[in-house]
Model the fold of this input.
Amino acid sequence: MKQKESLWQKIIRRFYGMDSPLNDYQRKQINRIGNNTFLILFGYILTSNVVVAFLTVTRQSEVLVDFIFVNILFILLLIIGYIFPAMNRLHLYDKEVSSGNYTQILKGIRWRSARAGIWFCIYMWFVNRGLDWFFDGISFTQGLQSFNGYWRAILGGVIFGFGMYMFKRINSKKRI
Done:
């Protein structure tokens, strides 16, 4: 009997971009990558908090915004610069597909990529409306009337969906 996957395992799979349930090798490697990432982030957080504590004495208002942007940038660079290449190097993204159901798998990848692009489009539209309101004082109803906002969200969704499709298609290895 197959054991049901826990919510935490589903979250881990989603974060690391895995489609199928994790086997023991994948779980072990993901735990190793996650532990390395935690140690890097732990050192960064300790160092950055000490630096920020000293900088807030002189420039309080500027330090908070700078600290938030530097943290976001560092975390994104860590994910792109360490986790993604480590997962590729260990071939954890690779998905072997038999030649009989390759076209069916590609259709599924197209549908999932289109759905991801649509969700990204919706998310970006709401984020842009919130940022316009917070920084520029543009009301939500004015944002509804902005064609430029719709265009940016749709373009972002198309690019994101296409990127997801290419990523998943490249990592689908056809077995002969």
Strands lie at 95-98, 172-175. The mean pLDDT is 86. The radius of gyration is 21 Å.
